[in-house]
TrEMBL record:
One of its GO terms (cellular component) is periplasmic space. Its main location: periplasm. Residues 1-22 form the signal peptide. Heme c 1 binds at C37, C40, H41, M91. Heme c 2 binds at C142, C145, H146, M189. Keywords: Electron transport, Heme, Iron, Metal-binding, Periplasm, Signal, Transport. One of its GO terms (molecular function) is iron ion binding. It comes from the Bacteria. It is found in: Periplasm. This is Cytochrome c domain-containing protein. Residues 23-114, 128-212 form the Cytochrome c domain. Binds 2 heme c groups covalently per subunit. Pfam families: Cytochrom_C.
């Protein structure tokens, strides 16, 4: 009797442990650590190098859609003058190392990571620049899709913007406005972003990049 009870207990413990093993987070971490993602996007996706995007705490569906588009070569962008190749090239080059399942797992892992604290800007932007960024964001109507302060995307396939790398934000907005980046749901944004000047884009990026999502 005792033995049967113990066997049942063991089975129950195993069953409880299984979903944790099968949910992809551990597998996603392994992909992130072994397929060179960390070299460019930093520890846990929260400390990107140079002008590369932060990924920690981004919407899972948005991440997965971008990963699929990058793997399929659908997401293109401007040329990085320091390398002479598109910014996304280094990443595209390693995408043969990952399959569809890896992409699902790594998107899940990254969405569960805590967003990093904002990276201080050097030189620090003037208070007027930050205020102009917030004003442009609110008057252009970005809030309807990305939420108040870029903190609450209205749909799971839309990205968070708060705390994102400033240089990356400028590039992403400019590329979508100029229709260089047209993959996925980019076209939903065309009508709004076309009204933004270069100065407004820079100001919005300064403001958004300094909003802290790490304490959530
Ligand atoms: C050589 C550097 C490099 C490597 C390695 C790399 N990435 Fe990237 N990644 C980038 C750059 C640069 C961009 C932005 C491209 C652009 O500006 O269009 C990017 C974009 C992304 C995006 C879209 C982010 C957004 O906000 O739209 C995701 C998701 C992503 N990378 C995940 C990964 C994962 C997962 C791996 C590993 C399998 C990886 N990256 C490996 C450089 C890299
Ligand atoms: C109608 C909805 C909508 C509106 C309004 C909108 N966006 Fe977007 N935005 C999106 C969607 C959807 C994406 C992702 C596109 C994709 O699937 O690749 C996006 C992507 C972005 C990105 C790229 C994020 C990344 O990680 O690469 C930035 C930056 C951005 N939006 C800023 C803005 C700003 C600033 C405004 C206001 C001027 C704005 N958006 C207005 C829907 C919208």
């Amino acid at each position: 009797m005792r033995l049967i009870f113990r066997t049942l207990l063991t089975a129950a413990a195993l069953a409880a442990a299984l979903p944790a093993l099968a949910d992809g987070t551990d597998d996603g971490k392994k992909v992130y650590m072994t397929k060179s993602c960390m070299a460019c996007h930093g520890m846990k996706g929260a400390k990107p190098v140079m002008t590369y995007p932060a990924l920690a705490g981004q919407n899972e569906k948005y991440l997965l859609n971008q990963l699929k588009d990058i793997k399929a070569g659908k997401r293109v962008g401007t040329i990085d003058e320091t390398t002479g190749h598109p910014f996304v090239q280094g990443m595209t080059d390693i995408m043969h190392l990952v399959d569809e399942n890896d992409l699902k797992n790594v998107a899940k892992y990254l969405a569960e990571q805590k967003p990093g604290a904002p990276k201080a800007l050097d030189p620090a932007p003037a208070p007027e620049e930050i205020a102009a960024g917030e004003a442009a964001y609110n008057s252009l109507g970005c809030k309807s899709c990305h939420g108040k302060d870029g903190m609450k995307p209205s749909t799971k396939t839309y990205p968070f913007l708060a705390g994102q790398n400033r240089a990356y934000l400028i590039r992403a907005m400019t590329e979508i406005r100029d229709k260089t980046r047209v993959n996925g749901q980019s076209k939903l944004m065309f009508g709004t972003i076309k009204k933004a000047s270069d100065a407004e884009i820079a100001a919005m990026a300064s403001w958004l990049s300094q909003i802290d999502r790490s304490a959530e």
